[in-house]
UniProtKB/TrEMBL annotation:
The keyword rRNA processing applies. Keywords: Methyltransferase, rRNA processing, S-adenosyl-L-methionine, Transferase. Belongs to the class I-like SAM-binding methyltransferase superfamily. RNA methyltransferase RlmE family. The lineage of its organism: Eukaryota, Viridiplantae, Streptophyta, Embryophyta, Tracheophyta. The keyword S-adenosyl-L-methionine applies. GO terms for molecular function: rRNA (uridine-2'-O-)-methyltransferase activity. The active site is at 190 (proton acceptor). The gene is LOC100834173. HAMAP family: RNA_methyltr_E. Residues 20-232 form the Ribosomal RNA methyltransferase FtsJ domain. It comes from the Eukaryota. This is rRNA methyltransferase 2, mitochondrial.
Length: 234
């Protein structure tokens, strides 16, 4: 096989062969290989964790059990922790991230100290209406960002301010100034490519030491998914 179908089939077959519950595992594998976001013993929060492939990859990168660490998967639907590649450090919580209080999220972390890595693979159910899908994708991305860094304050003169203001209502239900990502922590957010993504990227460059965009090789050719990778929260 060749072309897009052949590529898709390769990752699907590899996922089955290696015991991953979905081909999306290879997206995080590539991100981790290139950016080393998850260190042994890390505290990881996985937003939109269904069906669990990123839980598997995150757990694999925690190192041996004695290193400690935790992976908390959050999703609006109940997700069973995969039996392969996961151990006792992985658990899932059924909750709506759009209604989740930062205090509730922090309480899920070790000693309530927050997380060292936050992964957001959240994506809208694609309706086919491009503008609608893009807007929901940005709302989910804004929520993940707010949960990570806390209250989002914008500079009126900044060139990203218009983009960010469009989605301020998505920052969450609580006014907590502090986010749940630890200083020096890493954040990954999935977006559907659109004109607002560069604005998110420019804003994050003020908050993180390094910011980049990546379209993993395992992404289907028909997909507009792109990942915003933020390293080292200031």
């Amino acid at each position: 096989m060749s072309g897009a179908t052949g590529t898709a089939d390769f990752f699907y077959r590899e996922a089955q062969r290696l015991g991953y519950v979905a081909r999306s595992a290879f997206k995080l594998i590539q991100i981790q290989k290139q950016h080393k976001l998850i260190a042994p013993g890390a505290a990881v929060l996985d937003l939109g964790c269904a069906p669990g492939a990123w839980l598997q990859v995150a757990c694999q990168n925690l190192g041996p059990l004695e290193k400690g660490g935790v992976v908390i998967g959050l999703d609006v639907k109940k997700v069973k922790v995969p039996s392969a590649h996961c151990d006792s450090r992985v658990r899932t919580v059924c909750a709506d991230v759009m209604a989740l209080m930062k205090q509730q999220a922090r309480a899920m972390s070790p000693q309530e100290r927050g997380f060292s890595v936050i992964l957001s693979d959240m994506c809208p159910v694609v309706s086919g209406i491009t503008t609608k899908d893009e807007a929901i994708s940005c709302e989910l991305g804004m929520r993940a960002l707010s949960l990570a860094i806390g209250k989002i304050k914008l500079k009126e003169s900044a060139d990203y301010s218009i983009t960010m203001e469009k989605f301020q209502s998505s920052t969450g239900p609580d006014p907590d100034e502090d986010g749940v990502l630890r200083r020096g922590g890493n954040l990954v957010i999935k977006f559907l490519e659109n004109e607002d993504v560069p604005g998110f990227s420019r804003f994050c460059k003020e908050k993180f030491k390094k910011v980049s965009l990546l379209r993993p090789k395992a992404t289907r050719s028909s997909s507009r998914e792109i990942y915003l990778i933020c390293e080292g929260l200031r």
